[in-house]
Amino acid sequence: MLVRAVPVSDARGVVQEWVGVHTDQTELTRTEDARARLFQALERTRAELDQFAYATSHDLKAPLRGIANLSQWMEEDLGPSLGGESRRQMELLRGRVRRMEALIDGLLEYSRAGRVRHRLERVDVGQLLEGVRRVLPLPASARLDVAPGMPVLVTERLPLEQVFRHLVGNALKHARREDVHVRIGVREDGDARHAFSVADNGPGIAAGFHEKIWGVFQTLEARDKVENTGIGLAVVRKLVESRGGRAWVESSEGAGATFHFTWP
């Protein structure tokens, strides 16, 4: 029970009476208790999902590694007696294994995106992008230009790095040209946010696919033509939106593509 009251005084300031209300807080207390229990259950579910995803990933990848190893041993044992077409089929099989492993890793990353939080730290975005440049397989003929004036943010380093790694990697992978040119820019977007852009000189994306590409397993080219899980952009949007930002693309066929996202 919650009681609130105020005194009522006469002209001399002498309290004559008290006026107040009392509130039965039984239902409020029950609601708060239920909310606390729900939050605890949600945290347990998140932890269980993380453990399930990790265990599933490990259990699925173990037989895949066995298949890849077995095909390699068969190829070595058969030696010269294995014909060229059979060798090609063995390599194709191992390629499918690598693709399945990449899909499993991508699904694990997607399941964690937006749920797993990291500590806030001072992040020099320019230095972070230099790290991304070193990690990605950048062809000798490719260019990756980072605009001057990249900000220093107090934010989660790993999710921001994941976003840039997926966007730059996507641009390099789908460029369809040796002289691929990727440009990374930034501008202030108000409300203490920054709007980043990753532009390329690739083949571009038709307007009808501007939303479709953000879905899980969505690709614009056959996987046999361009090795791609179709999960990277879905991870990008999930990471960005879980931090209160948004992600979108501007592009037209034959004119390259510019991917934008806002980040606090």
UniProtKB/TrEMBL annotation:
Pfam families found in the cross-reference section: HATPase_c (PF02518), HisKA (PF00512)
SUPFAM superfamilies assigned: ATPase domain of HSP90 chaperone/DNA topoisomerase II/histidine kinase, Homodimeric domain of signal transducing histidine kinase
SMART domains hit by this protein: HATPase_c, HisKA
Listed PROSITE patterns: HIS_KIN (PS50109), PAC (PS50113)
One GO biological process term: osmosensory signaling via phosphorelay pathway
Occurrences of domain PAC (ranges): 1-37
MF terms (GO), sorted A to Z: phosphorelay response regulator activity; phosphorelay sensor kinase activity; protein kinase activator activity
Domain Histidine kinase: 55-264
Membrane-traversing stretches: none
The keyword Repressor appears for this protein: no
Catalysed transformations (reactions): ATP + protein L-histidine = ADP + protein N-phospho-L-histidine
EC number: 2.7.13.3
Keywords assigned: Kinase, Phosphoprotein, Transferase
Statement: the UniProt record of this protein carries the keyword Kinase: yes
Enzyme class label: transferase
Signal peptide bounds: none
PANTHER family: BACTERIOPHYTOCHROME, TWO-COMPONENT HISTIDINE KINASE
Protein name from the UniProt record: histidine kinase
Organism: Pyxidicoccus fallax
